[in-house]
Amino acid sequence: xxxxxxxxxxxxxxxxxxxxxxxxxxxxxxxxxxxxxxxxxxxxxxxxxxxxxxxxxxxxxxxxxxxxxxxxxxxxxxxxxxxxxxxxxxxxxxxxxxxxxxxxxxxxxxxxxxxxxxxxxxxxxxxxxxxxxxxxxxxxxxxxxxxxxxxxxxxxxxxxxxxxxxxxxxxxxxxxxxxxxxxxxxxxxxxxxxxxxxxxxxxxxxxxxxxxxxxxxxxxxxxxxxxxxxxxxxxxxxxxxxxxxxxxxxxxxxxxxxxxxxxxxxxxxxxxxxxxxxxxxxxxxxxxxxxxxxxxxxxxxxxxxxxxxxxxxxxxxxxxxxxxxxxxxxxxxxxxxxxxxxxxxxxxxxxxxxxxxxxxxxxxxxxxxxxxxxxxxxxxxxxxxxxxxxxxxxxxxxxxxxxxxxxxxxx
Length: 411
What we know:
Layout: H1 17-23, H2 26-35, H3 42-49, H4 53-65, E1 69-76, E2 84-90, H5 98-102, H6 106-130, E3 140-148, H7 150-180, E4 186-196, H8 201-205, E5 222-223, H9 225-230, H10 234-243, H11 250-256, H12 261-273, E6 277-283, E7 293-298, E8 303-304, H13 306-310, H14 314-337, E9 348-356, H15 358-385, E10 393-403
Parallel strand pairs: 5-8
Antiparallel strand pairs: 1-2, 3-10, 4-9, 4-10, 6-7
């Protein structure tokens, strides 16, 4: 049997400035995002994502006229007295390159970003609810904060673009193998992001990376099975996630995140005893005029290798994943609210559903692990080049690949 012809990515990178402005609408962006996952009718979209049916139906028709979606089925309306219901599927992806993105006004960029982020978070919620997010013990979920100079920022953007461009190749290779063998089909969502944080770069540099050189071996950043079990507690794992972004005291953590003061303080002390955090500063008077307030910073980034992650029970993995997700979602939300998410024209935010087999899934995991292990080196190089750390770009990087609860589109 001849090999299938390699499918090309839809030509969304070359959209004109005029089309970029036309697509810069929250509903049109959300429709394109949803149709990249599965076919939908306008009424289905309204039921699941919201909006007013007349407006949503008009957006569907416009996207079809512009060649981004097409009708694949006509069926009787599900509501009594309803006309024919048109079911659409996506045939192009609205991914803005930097030149096109610059033509979109800042006020509209914010709307588009919120729509894209909402669609991505909806995919995560579906996978969590469907029990597939942590179904694979080697799924990837990580985010990190790094302070970068402009050359490092550009290098990071290029690396994420290359990773995005790798996905269709992995999908085609998987498709070729699946045609010739009875392999496992793995509908997958991949998410990549790099955006400016409202956090001060100096505060970010006080977190868990800059006071020691980055390891040469990326595996050194991961916890072993014994420590993984000790950390399998939502408060301890969340504390480590927050301390990877900025120094915090137990009282600050309780005010911003939650939990009881006694339990959170004990968790901070335990992490310090295990050598994972350290007291960074002591302030007299405390936040409410009390005693000494101890400010902690992290000494290790909270990431697990596959063997350690596999050693944890599924319920524990799910609880820790939720803690990681909550922390990442808060970083995204605070950046959007502070108007820094789209402050850089070449910020990166993309997510993509693809169909993989087991070898392609493993290859993707290695690529994301490599990017994660590379980030401390980028920051270290930035610090060596800069004379003023305040001029660095406080950057949040998010990386994820997880199994979808339903079949991913093959086109």
